[in-house]
């Protein structure tokens, strides 16, 4: 099974990402970008191989979605690094991605080619991929917030807070696009756009939270620290929406978004 080769691809990618983070600290910008992109290509090659082997998008199980999240975190990190040249961002994004890679290494799953009818929709793959991209970009906003709150000895500057705002703008745009795709998928699969399923409810809570954040920043532009702490709360809501709801009693036997069967 292709999953048995995951550790080889994953470790190679993590080593390349770590090399990119190290060279970024050494102010070797082009080399850092090359290493990071090379790691992304290795990791993406594994996802493509898995897609071909399974004959379906590797997006059904929690482990499969973690693959995409582990890919998109360094991708978001290298974009931030290339745009704003914060040398620490690659170290943070690599660390966070490695955590999710380790989850997949130490908690392997059984993957079948079977897709239930609800997942045999053309909206399935773009919906989940767009959501994983949104989670990664908002994860980059979290990384920026943690750095400014916990590692900076001085107050954050307006420019630095503007970076977190820009990341939230893009992340919320992807969340919105993902919700729209999900609504179209739901209409096709179940006959209605929205049903207040537990997953949908938490998705709405998360979307509204980041929308409130944007409005708060517009009306309180100098209240930096409360806004940065809010991003930590927002990230917790993302995790609840992504996998935390699976442990809620109200989801078992009720949610139509439970596919790990």
TrEMBL record:
It is a multi-pass membrane protein. InterPro entries: Cyt_c_assembly, Cyt_c_biogenesis_CcsA/CcmC. It comes from the Bacteria. Pfam families: Cytochrom_C_asm. GO terms for cellular component: plasma membrane. GO terms for biological process: cytochrome complex assembly. The chain crosses the membrane at residues 6-25, 32-54, 66-82, 89-108, 128-151, 167-186, 201-216, 228-245. It is found in: Membrane. One of its GO terms (molecular function) is heme binding. Signal peptide: none annotated. Residues 87-248 form the Cytochrome c assembly protein domain. Keywords: Cytochrome c-type biogenesis, Membrane, Transmembrane, Transmembrane helix. PANTHER family: CYTOCHROME B_B6 PROTEIN-RELATED (PTHR30071:SF1), HEME EXPORTER PROTEIN C (PTHR30071). This is Cytochrome c assembly protein domain-containing protein.
């Amino acid at each position: 099974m292709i999953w048995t080769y995951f550790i080889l691809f994953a470790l190679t990618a993590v080593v390349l990402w770590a090399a990119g983070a190290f060279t970024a600290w050494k102010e070797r910008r082009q080399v850092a970008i090359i290493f990071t992109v090379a790691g992304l290509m290795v990791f993406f090659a594994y996802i493509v191989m898995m897609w071909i082997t399974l004959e379906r998008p590797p997006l059904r199980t929690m482990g499969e979605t973690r693959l995409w999240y582990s890919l998109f975190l360094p991708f978001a990190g290298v974009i931030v690094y290339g745009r704003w040249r914060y040398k620490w961002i690659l170290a943070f994004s690599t660390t966070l991605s490695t955590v999710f890679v380790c989850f997949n290494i130490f908690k392997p799953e059984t993957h079948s080619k079977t897709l239930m009818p609800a997942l045999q929709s053309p909206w399935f793959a773009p919906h989940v991929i767009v959501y994983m991209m949104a989670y990664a970009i908002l994860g980059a906003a979290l990384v920026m917030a943690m750095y400014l709150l916990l590692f900076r000895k001085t107050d954050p500057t307006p420019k630095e807070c503007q970076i977190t705002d820009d990341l939230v703008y893009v992340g919320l745009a992807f969340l919105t696009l993902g919700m729209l795709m999900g609504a179209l998928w739901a209409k096709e699969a179940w006959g209605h756009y929205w049903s207040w399923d537990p997953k949908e409810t938490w998705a709405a809570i998360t979307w509204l939270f980041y929308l409130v954040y944007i409005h708060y920043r517009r009306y309180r532009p100098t209240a930096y620290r409360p806004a940065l702490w809010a991003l930590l709360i927002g990230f917790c809501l993302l995790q609840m929406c992504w996998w935390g709801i699976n442990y809620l009693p109200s989801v078992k036997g009720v949610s139509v978004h439970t596919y790990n069967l």
